[in-house]
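Run: sequence + beta-D-glucopyranose -> complex structure.
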Amino acid sequence: MKRCCTRWNDRQKAGKRILCLLMACLLLTGCQGTRKEEEKNSIRIGISLYRGDDTFINNIRNELEEQAKEYERENGIKVTLDIQDAKGSQNTQNNQVERFISLGCDVLCINPVDRMDASVIIDKAMTAGVPVVFFNRQPVEEDMNRWDQLYYIGVDAKETAVLQGQIIVDLYREDPLAVDINGDGVVSYVMLEGESSHQDSLIRTEWSVQTLKDGGVPIEKITGGIANWERSQASALMEQWLGEYPETIELVVSNNDDMALGAIDALSRAGITEVNVIGIDGTIPGIEAIENGKLLGTVSANKEVYGSAIMELAASCALGVEPPGEYPLTDGTYYWPPQEILVHNTDG
Ligand code: BGC
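>> structure
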């Protein structure tokens, strides 16, 4: 029995030696792996856009491409962007994610089609160990909390709305009749809303109106409707309202610039120039409309910072280093790019 035990001890010792050897091998491979990481001088980023024909998203896409070049120049790391358009289909986007992973993307930047249904993407990314930076369409908190390699970048919707309301509050304080055009003591407005499921639509609608009220502007809502962020849909709605409420509308509050431009299209067709229209985004066509006096004002997200924050965060995920300090993350997960008011300069 004893001998038997001794024999087992010998075997255990031999086993231990093999185990040590194995561990040394593993450690060595681990180190080599780390060395490989340190030497990583190229990264591949898979980007999927909910709709490539969305004006704001297009502006962000262009900025991302610029920032990728800038990142390459500054860091000497080759950046390959694989940009895909999901064309409004969650299913297509899920397939794009699968393809990105099979192509060996180091990180994914996803503008989800259905922000309530990000779980499939998260499942795939987690299984493959590929971090995800979501942007513009915010997944629900429950999904975001599933993994510490999930991030979100997008403007703070309440801040946007408060700034948008402030455009009118400031003008009203300066010159009430510039807002209450018919001078009846009430500012009659219509509201153009984005997609009903988008966090920005709900919060912007609520807080722009609240800011007008808090700022002492005597407002009355005539009507409102959902135009899904789209210029043509907004134009059709506005045309209908102009017919239903002739000579009543004094202000158009729009959840984004494209819909504001749609309202302006309808106003132009009707030959109306005095109605104030305010948007959000600071898109290129939006800024042009401010310059030529058709759009009173907008809230512009700083696209350079927006694009750079996505790029820098994605790169740090891809390289496995700390997130960039210049874009501090709330709760280690969220970054909100800065925004500013742009208004038509009546002096210029
Ligand atoms: C922008 C819209 C855009 C939408 C797309 C919003 O934050 O203001 O212009 O269409 O995001 O998700």
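>> summary
Residues 157-301 form a domain with the Rossmann fold fold (CATH 3.40.50.2300). Residues 2-39 form the longest helix (38 residues).
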